[in-house]
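no rush on this but wanted to send it before i forget. theres a chain ive been looking at and ive put its sequence and its fold in token form underneath. i want to understand how the tokens follow from the sequence so walk me through it. thanks a lot i owe you, the record is right below:
>
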Amino acid sequence: MGYLIGDATSGAHSTWAQVRCPLIGGYDQYDSVVGPGSFPHNLIVDSGFHADEGYFLRVINWPQTSTWFDTNSNPHTEYAGPFVGWNDGGGVSPYDSYFSVGAYDANINDTTNPVYTSVNHNLDETDVADSLVGLTVTYTSGTFTTTADAFEQAPASTPWFGQDIGVNAISAVTDISTFTAF
């Protein structure tokens, strides 16, 4: 007995044996399409970044949402997935800005949400180490090189916003080296 890969009736089996996804331009820039079963089989991404070679990155599953309550019993929706995000410090000292690829409104940042963070990015850790650390990111007021902080799954402290890019204004990411914006 076997499974038909991508079959809508056999469960959550990906068509390519490993789900692949681009870096998504924001938590509101995608839509999952559920097939005849209860699992999403297609992902429509409105904006983001795909590798120049045309390949997508391996992810452990499609972007997804979950609900949680903060310490004041306020409801939240976490968007987990490889979302390109930033937290703008405004370019005014002492407020640093941050860059991350990961979730939006994650419960790890209970008291500071909603913000982007690198946790729950769903990326394959081998892809992170091999192809995402050391990239040049172009943003509103300059460039920087990504470090592991931008993709940290288990930060040592909270709240965690990703990679600190200093006292710089950031309102858009326009380019990531070795990736093409769409």
